[in-house]
Design goal:
The protein is an alpha/beta fold and 691 residues long. It has 31 helices and ten strands. The strands form three sheets. Strands 2-3-1-4-5-7 form a six-stranded mixed β-sheet. The radius of gyration is 29 Å and the shape is elongated. The two termini are 46 Å apart. The structure holds guanosine-5'-diphosphate (GDP) and magnesium ion (MG).
């Protein structure tokens, strides 16, 4: 037999985790609102049956406000499935049941899965599943995607329910004038093909979608909007009374971790400490990634590559191969590509920490806190998610902006995200800064990350202050998740997928481009092979023409320009190009030129793939706007940076310090404003549980 089940529920209740467990796939799970922005489906075998499972974005009510919620609603209303698997979080049952009631009003087969039971068990409590199931008229399965998961029980319950679903009684509906609103809109409801009960209740709730589907019939009195909500919550209260029972003792470990979590909140989310703590944490991560451990591993790999180049060269010289081919293999391929691959350890370490920060719930708490500020500049906490993904890969991050419901906000997020340094820019930063600043390079790199953030905030603020690019009224709301200990499995998953993407890129596009650039840089149209840097190569001829444009920025030489051009295809190629054109010191000469080059690299168009993503999400016009914005901003900021540094004649160090100081001060001042922002409640139509 074939069955199709749909996983649904509020955001952050573990739907995607269960989806992964049930289908053993690897969708991105995040302790974050709205990670699943699209419908995902997979099939799995269970006891000889084919089970298709769909994972949907989380939402709070069938009356929807955003694009991702619309995906979920439409799937539930119009999709073909045998049963809904409704996922709740054990620690937030009351609020979770609100959406469930609306699904029960639809009268479709539903199985309720109470997830995160591990958290209740840890405090010596459990849920009376039978009592809950009887009260709601649905089967209830207790589970934990984290510990002791048993998918069989969920699937069996769903299969059984799809064959014969129970008669349900939702007593609160008797207090609503359902019959009369139905009679008054009978024709419209019949024509709309919506389920009569659902349509009637939603008409009472003044749901815009149902009202327009049913057509201009009889509009319900507004007092029923609040009344419906109140009745549902009243019913929930009666159902959940005494449903959580104590059956053991709270473990010592749990007591300790609860104390730790509330201590962490006191420090990490303290009005005045939140941002300094964030910067401190990030600095620590950077120091480990770029300063000590990361460079230790990178050094080892680089040494290995040097040995490989030398031994390959001495071996090939003995053969009869032409000199150019030997040089191509040794320097164009092994050295160039290996030089980029050497940064794998740093990328892995950075992602290790980001994975921990994200999965523990810290990043989403931070976004929750900053939501108010971002709203001021026409973005939202949701946009911050896309931007944080941008530290990984701009091209994929841009695609996650789809969940933003305000079009202007979405488009702006999409063109601003590439200002944040993706992991491909990281090898360039490390190698160039390392060559010129030695131990201080960690500071320089940290400064670049901060600069990226400042440019995003500043540009957004400028857009928002004008008329043309002002965001509309965003209806985004998010909730504060609790701290969770990240699972090893999940952290390894993130590490592996990032390492894999990086290595595939190095093995394909970086390799090919490197060979092409090496050939262009070592051959002349008239003389054939002439070696690198001799002055007449094809590449030098082309880039000499363009390079004067960059003279005011301090790196107006053909080598640097070539590196920038090659970076349009993929940022990883910038470094290998620099290496194959004589190395960092030969290309830049002095440290000011080098740091200006890094500032430019930080801000100019990340790669063609990102442009493609921008076009996909926001259209050609926005892509062109983004392209001009990025090239223009990169030029202006780099120029400003260089002039500031030059103004401090006593040395570039002071210049950088001054600029970084002002940048950090501006960012802190802006972010501290959030202290005065009022936080919005989650979209549960105002239940009493989340204030
Ligand atoms: P979704 O938004 O409903 O798809 O939720 P996710 O699957 O993305 O999970 C949200 C967060 O809850 C992640 O940090 C998960 O690791 C965590 N999580 C999911 N299931 C469980 C569970 O059974 N127990 C605990 N303790 N955490 C869970
Ligand atoms: Mg999800």
């Amino acid at each position: 037999m074939e069955y199709s089940f749909v996983l649904t529920g509020n955001p952050n209740v573990g739907k995607t985790s269960l989806f992964n467990r049930l289908t053993r796939s690897f969708e991105h799970v995040g302790n974050w609102h709205g990670v699943t922005v699209d419908r995902v489906s997979k099939s799995a075998k269970f006891e000889g049956d084919d089970i298709n499972i769909v994972d949907l974005p989380g939402f709070y009510s069938l009356t929807v406000h955003s694009f991702e919620e619309e995906i979920s609603r439409d799937e539930i209303l119009f999709g073909k499935y045998d049963a809904l698997i409704y996922v709740c979080a054990a620690d937030n049952l009351s609020r979770n049941l609100y959406l469930l009631l609306q699904l029960l009003e639809l009268d479709v087969p539903v199985v309720v899965v109470v997830n995160m039971m591990d958290e209740l068990y840890a405090v010596g409590k459990t849920i009376d599943a039978k009592k809950l199931g009887d009260a709601l008229g649905v089967p209830v399965v207790l589970t934990s995607a984290k510990r002791g998961f048993d998918g069989g029980e969920i699937i069996s319950a769903a299969v059984a329910e799809s064959k014969k679903h129970r008669k349900r009684d939702l007593p609160y509906l008797r207090h609503l004038p359902i019959r009369s609103i139905y009679e008054k809109n009978k024709d419209g409801i019949t024509k709309s093909k919506l389920k009569p009960l659902y349509a009637s209740v939603k008409l009472l709730e003044r749901d815009a979608f149902v009202e327009s589907s049913v057509g201009s019939g009889h509009v319900a009195e507004t007092r029923y909007v609040a009344e419906t909500v109140r009745l549902r919550y009243e019913f929930i209260d009666s159902v959940t009374e005494n449903i959580i029972i104590r059956d053991g003792k709270q473990s010592a470990l749990n007591k300790a971790s609860e104390a730790l979590a509330s201590f962490a909140d006191k420090i990490l989310l303290n009005k005045f400490l939140a941002l300094p703590m964030f910067l401190l944490i990030m600095s620590g991560i950077f120091w480990i990634t770029f300063g000590t451990i990361g460079s230790f591993f990178t050094d080892i790999i680089e040494k290995g590559i040097n040995i490989a180049v030398e031994s390959t060269e001495s071996f090939l010289v003995k053969t009869n191969l032409p000199v150019w081919l030997i040089k191509l293999v040794c320097y164009g391929i092994i050295d160039g590509v290996g030089g980029v691959a050497a940064f794998l350890p740093q990328i892995v370490i950075l992602f290790f920490f980001l994975a921990i920060l994200e999965d523990s719930g810290y990043i989403s708490r931070l976004a929750f806190m900053t939501d108010g500020l971002f709203e001021k500049i026409g973005l939202s906490g949701r946009a911050v998610f896309t931007m944080i993904m941008g530290f990984g890969c701009s091209a994929t991050a841009v695609l996650t902006a789809r969940g933003l419901d305000d079009e202007m906000m979405r488009n702006k997020t999409v063109v601003l995200t590439p200002f944040l340094p993706c992991s491909a820019r990281l090898p360039v930063f490390t190698a160039v800064a390392g060559a010129f600043f030695g131990k201080m390079s960690v500071l320089a790199i940290l400064g670049l990350y901060v600069l990226g953030a400042v440019v995003v905030v500043a540009s957004a603020a400028i857009f928002e202050s004008g008329k043309k690019l002002k965001s509309g009224e965003g209806s985004f709301v998010m909730e504060m998740p609790r701290y969770r200990i990240p699972t090893t499995e999940r952290v390894l998953q993130i590490l592996w997928s990032n390492a894999k993407t990086f290595l595939i890129k190095v093995g394909s596009i970086v390799l090919v481009l490197n060979v092409i650039i090496w050939i262009l840089g070592n051959f002349s149209l008239t003389q054939g092979f002439i070696g690198a840097g001799s002055g007449d190569s094809i590449l030098e001829q082309i880039c000499t023409v363009i390079s004067p444009i960059f003279a005011p920025l301090g790196f107006g030489n053909w080598r640097a320009v070539t590196a920038l051009m090659s970076g349009l295809v993929a940022k990883e190629v910038v470094l290998s190009t620099v290496n194959s054109l004589g190395g960092v010191t030969a290309v830049f000469g002095d440290s000011l030129a080098a740091i200006c080059f890094l500032v430019y690299t930080l801000l100019y168009v990340p790669c063609v793939a990102t442009l493609g993503s921008i076009r996909k999400e926001a259209g050609t016009k926005w892509m062109i706007f983004g392209l001009c914005l990025q090239l223009g901003t990169a030029y202006v900021v780099t120029l400003a940076f260089r002039l500031t540094a030059l103004a401090f004649s006593c040395g570039i160090g002071y210049g950088i310090a001054a600029v970084s100081f002002w940048a950090v001060a501006a960012l802190l001042a802006a972010l501290t404003k959030i202290i005065f922002e009022k936080r919005r409640c989650v979209r549960c139509d105002g239940c009493k549980h989340c204030g």
